[in-house]
Structures are given as structure tokens and as C-alpha cells.
Design goal:
The protein is an alpha/beta fold and 393 residues long. It has 2 domains: 8-254, 3-Layer(aba) Sandwich (Aspartate Aminotransferase, domain 2); 257-391, Aspartate Aminotransferase, domain 1 (Alpha-Beta Complex). Helix content is 37%, strand content 15%. It contains 14 helices and 12 strands. The strands form 2 sheets. Strands 1-7-6-5-4-2-3 form a 7-stranded mixed β-sheet, with helices on both faces. Bound molecules: pyridoxal-5'-phosphate.
């Protein structure tokens, strides 16, 4: 009888693993660019790989495949693909699903790199994007026109942790014949499974929670078999595949996803609660706080609220810079989702490409500090932040 492998923690450990190769308990690193053709007949390969057959590592590789199967299991998807970065995954999605003359409707509140791709690169290929300065379902759906092929969501958003009602948007989009892709990096598959909410494609920067150790850049997408097959063809053509060693790191990182996320969720909640009552803090953005404007939606749709906490300082930008300079354990670095706590200011990192006016419209204050709460002891994270906050006038 096949062992029960239903729970997310069990899937994180076991799903996809290619065990038993020469008795190995772990998936081997198939550090090879190419493979022997399995037999004479297969040498007339016509562009689609039979399951379990490998020809060349840009097309597929057993170590990478194991990571893809684990991600598919974690997202409850029919299939998944892994890429060399989150941006490579996003690029492959849009280059597969859209052609000249097509339009994307995107939330304006999205990762800066994605914004740059949509705003500055795709128009050269004749693909335009309507950016919706709102997370409300009606506003997103009313931006759809006859040329729209894809709605791009990010949930929760960076850095203000705003939420979108994925289920409602997906239902409305499908009624209009439009597909929905969602960047679920901030939630990870532990806190949210967007395909079960009706999205067509879920995308992750695996650089963040999925790998979880800030030692790898990788990306992934998951969805139905036909969609993944379409995008796979583009990955073969455009490249952007992850190398086998990277695939191994990702596999190893994902095994602890469930326990890491549990701690990230606990530390995020404790940190947000602490900062909320701090005298130097003006405002805290965290979906797990009852003060969050979409708290009810958060409780209904997220299984955990994550480790990302953003806050504004009472003393403005000057005070925020002082806090940043005074941190001792928490590293000043972009990125997020690793075991170590990190701090950054959207002003000079993720949103540096946005104009002051665009940042203002999104509600990104110049004193905003974004913390990625790691899995350290919460007392130590809080102590470091408190001493840094003390330094701010
Ligand atoms: C929400 C989000 N999506 C996508 C990306 C891009 O991922 P990558 O850096 O792996 O290309 C990032 C990176 O910071 C991100 O934070």
C-alpha cells in the first residue's frame, strides 16, 4: 500500500524525492548537461518529452524534476516548473500566454522587478499592461477589456501586506474568459494555495520562503498540465532553467518549509503586536493585526499571516535611517523569507524604480521599514529592534 502523504509537512519532506537510486535516501544531484538517448526510437524526438525521459538539462533534469514535483504537491497542482529566478518564471508566464496586441491587467502594488518587466519591457513586444491602483475586486475586473488575456495578482503585497480576494477575482476573470496568475511568494504554499482559490497559475520566487536560507536564487510556477506544458516549451526556447545543484539546494530547503513557516508566522505576529504599541512607531502593516483594513479577508483566506512586517516611523525618513543604521543582529539587506531576520527600506530597495508620486499613490511612506522576521528567538529579534528604535529621535 502507498504510504499516506497527505499533510503539507509530509509533502514538504517526501513529495517528489527521487529516492532509492543506488539505495540513496536523498535525491541525487544529476550534475549533467546531457543524457544518453534511451533507445533508437526516442532519437526521433518531436518536441515533447515522455514522462521520465531526459535528453538535455535545459529541457529537464531529474533533480530539478524532483523539486518541481514537490512544488506541485505543495500547491495541489497538476504540474510545476522550476526556473533560475522568480523573474525567469514570471517572464516565461507572460511570454507564453501573451502575444502582440494582448493586454495584462495587473495590480499596481506588485514587486518592483515585475513592474519593470510589465511597464518597460513588454510594450516593446506590443504587450501593454493596465496597472490598477487598487486591490478591490471590482476595480481589477473593470480594467479588463477585449484585449486582456491575463490578470496578474500578488498576494499579500510587498511591502504593505495588502490583500486581494483571489477567489472573487478568479471567478469574475473566468466569466470574462481571462486567466489569472498570482505571485504567492509572500504567503508560500503553507499559508495559501491560490489554485484552490481558482487562480490558473501560481508563481513563487523560491529565493524566498521555499528555499528559505538566502543562499539560492530560483523561481517556480504551478498550474494545470496543459498550461505548464505550454510554458515548458518556452522554457526550452528561452532558457531560464535552474542548474541541478540549485535544484538540490531548493529540494533541501523545502523539506523544512512547514516548520520554518510555523516559526515565521509566530515571529511575524509577535513582532507586529510589539511594534504596534511602540511609542516611536506610527503605523504597522501586518495582515494578522485586527487594525489591518482587510483583517477579515486575511482570516478567511490565509492559514498563517507570514513573517513580513512593515512599519512607519513617527520621526519620518531621518528616524527610519537611524533605526536601520543601529540594527545589530538584523541584517540590512533586500530579499526576504530566509531563516535570518532582514531589514530594508522600500524607498531605496524594492521600490527604487518607482517615482515619489507612484510610491505615494501606493501608500509607501518614506519612513517605511520592512522586516522579514527570521526564525531566531523572538526575544532576540525584538531586543535588537528596540535598541535600534531607542536610537531614533
Ligand atoms: C514578491 C516577489 N516576487 C518576485 C520576486 C523576484 O524573484 P527573484 O529575485 O527570485 O527573481 C521577488 C524578489 O524579491 C519578490 O519579492
Amino acid at each position: 500500500m502507498k504510504p499516506r502523504q497527505e499533510g503539507p509537512s509530509t509533502k514538504a519532506v517526501h513529495a517528489g524525492e527521487l529516492v532509492g537510486v543506488i539505495g540513496s535516501v536523498n535525491t541525487p544531484i544529476f550534475q549533467t548537461a546531457t543524457f544518453y538517448y534511451p533507445n533508437e526510437k526516442e532519437s526521433t524526438w518531436k518536441g515533447e518529452l515522455p514522462e521520465g525521459t531526459y535528453i538535455y538539462s535545459r529541457h529537464g533534469n531529474p533533480t530539478i524534476r524532483a523539486a518541481e514535483e514537490k512544488i506541485a504537491a505543495l500547491e495541489g497542482a497538476e504540474d510545476a516548473l522550476v526556473f533560475a529566478s522568480g523573474m525567469a518564471a514570471t517572464s516565461a508566464i507572460v511570454l507564453s500566454l501573451l502575444s502582440k496586441g494582448d493586454r495584462i491587467v495587473s495590480m499596481e502594488d506588485i514587486y518592483g522587478g515585475t513592474f519593470n518587466l510589465f511597464k518597460n519591457e513588454l510594450p516593446r513586444l506590443g504587450i501593454e499592461t493596465s496597472f490598477v491602483p487598487s486591490v478591490r475586486t471590482e476595480d481589477i475586473l473593470s480594467a479588463v477589456d477585449k484585449t486582456t488575456k491575463l490578470i496578474w495578482l500578488e498576494n499579500p503585497t510587498n511591502p504593505l501586506l495588502k490583500l486581494v480576494d483571489v477567489e472573487a477575482v478568479a471567478k469574475g476573470a473566468h466569466d470574462l474568459g481571462v486567466k489569472v496568475a498570482i505571485d504567492s511568494t509572500f504567503a508560500s504554499p503553507m499559508n495559501q494555495n491560490p489554485l484552490a482559490m481558482g487562480a490558473d497559475i501560481v508563481m513563487h520566487s523560491c529565493t524566498k520562503y521555499l528555499n528559505g536560507h538566502s543562499d539560492l536564487v530560483a523561481g517556480a510556477l504551478a498550474g494545470s498540465k496543459p498550461i505548464v506544458q505550454e510554458i515548458w516549451k518556452r522554457r526550452v526556447t528561452i532558457g531560464g532553467n535552474l542548474d541541478p545543484m540549485g535544484g538540490f539546494l531548493l529540494l533541501r530547503g523545502m523539506k523544512t518549509l512547514a516548520v520554518r513557516m510555523q516559526r515565521h508566522n509566530e515571529n511575524g505576529m509577535a513582532l507586529a503586536t510589539h511594534l504596534q504599541s511602540h511609542e516611536k512607531v506610527q503605523r504597522v502593516h501586518y495582515p494578522g493585526l485586527p487594525s489591518h483594513p482587510q483583517y477579515e479577508l486575511a482570516r478567511r483566506t490565509l492559514r498563517g499571516f507570514g513573517g513580513m512586517v512593515s512599519f512607519e516611523m513617527k520621526g519620518g525618513q531621518k528616524a527610519a535611517f537611524k533605526v536601520m543604521r543601529s540594527l545589530r543582529m538584523i541584517a540590512l539587506a533586500p530579499s526576504l523569507g530566509g531563516v535570518e531576520s532582514l531589514a530594508s527600506m522600500p524607498l531605496n530597495t524594492s521600490h527604487v524604480a518607482f517615482s515619489a508620486e507612484e510610491r505615494k499613490r501606493l501608500g509607501i511612506n518614506d519612513s517605511l521599514i520592512r522586516i522579514s522576521a527570521g526564525i531566531e528567538d523572538i526575544e532576540d529579534i525584538i531586543e535588537d529592534l528596540d535598541q535600534a528604535l531607542d536610537s531614533a529621535k
